[in-house]
Amino acid sequence: MAASHLLLLLLLLAPVADSAATRVFSVTDYGAAGDGSSYDTAAIQAAVNACGEAGGGRVLLPAPGDYLTATVHLRSRVVLEVAPGARLLGGTRQRDYPAERRRWYVVLAENTTGAGVTGGGEINGQGGAFVVRPSDQKNVMVSWNATGHCRGDECRPRLVGFVDSEDVTVHDITLNQPAYWCLHLVRCDHSVIRNVSIYGDFDTPNNDGIDIEGSNNTIITGCSIDTGDDAICPKSLTGPVHNLTVTNCRIRTKSSAIKFGSASSFNFERLLFDNITIVDSHRGLGMQIRDGGNVSNVVFSNIKMRTRYYHPSWWGRAEPIYITTCPRYPGSKEGTISDVFFINISSVSENGVFLAGSRHSLLRNLKFKNVDLTYRRWTNYTGGLYDYRPGCQELVKHKTGGMMLEQISGLEIDNVRMRWSRGELKGWDVNPLLFRPSTIDRLSFHDWQSLNVQ
């Protein structure tokens, strides 16, 4: 599996000669002021349209300049190039965005081939303008829900979106301060995300880094993500997610560094996450399968992480690994999780590994090989809770387990070490292995240790 992913990576990253890429359309030639106060939407869109009609090329936002805009609609074979020292600023008014909430993006490509974003500059969503009340626990946010297009406090614009598109490229760009999700791929095929830096406010909810929704054959490599909510998040609400490869990334988040779901109606198959560093995140590697979709053939390898507690208003309780499947609502379909491998993993965490299937959908064939788990406490947030959210059992009080096991058939442990910094556990009631009353069978332990260290 890893070899096939590597071959796909090399093919997708190979340079492609294209004379259209040499055509440059500067937005200043179409009247853009770049002063950060007057809207440049008409000029930017005119340059995009001219580029598209010419067969493709680059639309340049030259430096220096701050280009304020409503939604920009990319076209096939048009690459938006924000030069180093230039910024594209998303408007903060609801009228800056299309009527349909699903199209609320600062930059949007729909039904395109070969569209992209690059340039070394910055796309900025001005997310701070959407904060009603700042809070170091979780900000209270603006919500554009008066029109009925959405409900609750998640009615905010995303930053960059590609929908029903092919051959997407996003590389060498900074995506900064999204008001909601940052980079969103929806039902796309053959996408390459490379050398992208994402910065979201650490106290803002729902500002996910990269959401891969129903998209296939996706490469994410060399990215740095620092944000409040989930950093890399495959979702299968509107279609399956197949052949996703994530390599050489650094992540910091107040939620999950990598999270499958919770939107999970279709299957996830053949996913590889390799050489990833996770720092000070609320959860490391997570799966929240709630809507009947199935997960299979997933590899997490060569990952170093540090997970810690934050306020419990954020999903997660400092678990380095969190694998769960349960029905979102009573009577809902239960999805399966099988054939998941954790290889060469090390963590320092304030909580243990959480492995929980459900009564009619056991976790099957999980393998941990060369895994080093260190447990210690350094924050003052409340422990002693299992977090099943969304749905299911919600928050459940518990003793701390180095590994909590529930509803599992097939777990192989090979060279796994748990290290307990007892002097820093602050009164934890701990168990190296904690079995909750449920079906648990086909367990294999080889070279497993639980050690007290200081």
TrEMBL record:
Swiss-Prot/TrEMBL keywords: Glycosidase, Hydrolase, Signal
Cleaved signal peptide residues: 1-19
Pfam families: Glyco_hydro_28, Pect-lyase_RHGA_epim
Top-level taxon of the source organism: Eukaryota
Biological process terms in GO annotation: carbohydrate metabolic process
GO MF term set: polygalacturonase activity
Domain Rhamnogalacturonase A/B/Epimerase-like pectate lyase: start-end pairs: 25-70
Record keyword Hydrolase present: yes
Family matches, as SMART domains: PbH1 (SM00710)
Family: Belongs to the glycosyl hydrolase 28 family.
Protein name per the record: Rhamnogalacturonase A/B/Epimerase-like pectate lyase domain-containing protein
Lineage start: Eukaryota, Viridiplantae, Streptophyta, Embryophyta, Tracheophyta
